[in-house]
């Protein structure tokens, strides 16, 4: 490498330029020779690593250069053994490339000591190989977590609640932090907090499965959130309680205040917002832009009062273009002809597709062709 490069070195106040290693050696003292040897060795290792990542792992030159900063090896023996292990355990070439790109340090692993025990543990739990491969492709860094201190206790705690190996793995896929944090530091204490407050195990299982991140906060802060939800008037035995807890834990105080202010712009009182939260906690997860768009449509296009939506906050959970707009085109015709009342609109928007067509389109033979065309035209427009 140094034979082809033209380098400039500073020696005291003099600048020395050389075009070959031989000329450099003439000027450098013994200590400098040691440094030069180290630099040459490091450069060769780096060059080998980049080349290996490109040729053996299928990474692009850009990705290989980036990945080479996190893993160093002088020969292919160790990374070859890791790739062979993955290949023998169900990973395709594309998946191996994906895993190495996400977590290049994996190539420095010992397959027998670090990787195999984790695969054998999952096999013993009946975890299918495709599901395990999916988990590792999503979050390969978990392979460097301790089997005894992270994998086993986390799996046991999750499985104790979820009663399913498959759900346990899917929960870890949703939030790999399950295997990154001490299971007895966050997960177990926070599950116990819910049990102590009378939350049914079935509700704990549902929220843990769908929103595992909720459980990974300091137990004292988690307990504070539980008490806050109780002060809002939600009772622990009902399912809305855990949904409210998940919503509250998943949002910063600043984001919460911003949402409150958006609803107030549509004349929602604090009491109305609180009542809406008790009824449908997820309405607070709707983005500010969507809130504005939905409220504008309901108030200024459909023509209902703002309070109509505050009493039915679940309406904000639907898609504006794929549900509300197509169905409201039918609703406005029916309203204009006195065939339905405004009070029934929440059922019109909330019913299943089959019930909607039967009850609000085909039920009126004379209007059905027009209603069906209005509805399908809006649906097609939303899908474009």
TrEMBL record:
<keyword id="KW-0805">Transcription regulation</keyword>
<keyword id="KW-0804">Transcription</keyword>
<comment type="similarity">
    <text>Belongs to the mTERF family.</text>
</comment>
<protein>
    <recommendedName>
        <fullName>Mitochondrial transcription termination factor family protein</fullName>
    </recommendedName>
</protein>
<dbReference type="InterPro" id="IPR038538">
    <property type="entry name" value="MTERF_sf"/>
</dbReference>
<keyword id="KW-0809">Transit peptide</keyword>
<keyword id="KW-0806">Transcription termination</keyword>
<dbReference type="Pfam" id="PF02536">
    <property type="entry name" value="mTERF"/>
</dbReference>
<dbReference type="GO" id="GO:0003676">
    <property type="term" value="F:nucleic acid binding"/>
</dbReference>
<dbReference type="InterPro" id="IPR003690">
    <property type="entry name" value="MTERF"/>
</dbReference>
<dbReference type="GO" id="GO:0006353">
    <property type="term" value="P:DNA-templated transcription termination"/>
</dbReference>
């Amino acid at each position: 490498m140094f034979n082809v490069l033209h380098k400039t070195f500073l020696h005291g106040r003099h600048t020395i330029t050389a075009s070959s290693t031989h000329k450099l050696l003439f000027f450098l003292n013994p200590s400098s020779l040691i440094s030069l040897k180290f630099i040459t060795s490091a450069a060769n290792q780096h060059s080998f690593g980049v080349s290996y990542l490109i040729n053996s792992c299928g990474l692009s030159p850009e990705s290989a250069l980036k990945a080479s900063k996190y893993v160093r090896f002088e020969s292919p023996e160790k990374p070859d053994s890791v790739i062979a292990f993955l290949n023998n355990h169900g990973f395709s070439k594309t998946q191996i490339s994906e895993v190495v790109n996400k977590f290049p340090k994996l190539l420095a692993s010992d397959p027998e000591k670090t990787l195999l025990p984790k695969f054998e543990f999952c096999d013993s739990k009946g975890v299918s190989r495709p599901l395990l491969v999916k988990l590792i492709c999503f979050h390969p860094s978990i392979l460097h977590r301790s089997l005894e201190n992270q994998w086993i206790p986390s799996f046991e705690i999750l499985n104790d609640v979820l009663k399913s190996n498959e759900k346990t793995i899917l929960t870890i896929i949703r939030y790999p932090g399950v295997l990154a944090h001490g299971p007895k530091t966050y997960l177990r204490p926070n599950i116990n907090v819910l049990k102590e407050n009378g939350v049914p195990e079935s509700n704990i299982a549902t929220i843990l499965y769908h929103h595992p991140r909720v459980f990974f906060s300091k137990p004292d802060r988690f307990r504070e959130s539980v008490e806050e939800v109780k002060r809002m008037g939600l009772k622990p035995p009902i399912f809305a309680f855990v949904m409210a807890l998940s919503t509250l834990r998943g949002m910063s105080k600043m984001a919460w205040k911003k949402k409150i202010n958006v609803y107030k712009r549509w004349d929602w009182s604090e009491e109305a917002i609180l009542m809406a939260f008790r009824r449908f906690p997820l309405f607070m997860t709707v983005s500010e832009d969507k809130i504005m768009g939905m409220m504008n449509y309901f108030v200024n296009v459909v023509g209902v009062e703002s309070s109509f939506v505050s009493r039915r906050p679940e309406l904000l959970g639907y898609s504006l273009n794929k549900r509300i707009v197509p169905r409201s085109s039918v609703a406005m015709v029916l309203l204009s002809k006195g065939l339905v009342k405004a009070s029934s609109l929440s059922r019109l928007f909330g019913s299943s597709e089959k019930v909607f067509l039967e009850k609000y389109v085909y039920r009126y033979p004379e209007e059905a062709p027009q209603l069906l065309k209005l509805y399908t035209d809006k649906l097609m427009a939303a899908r474009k």
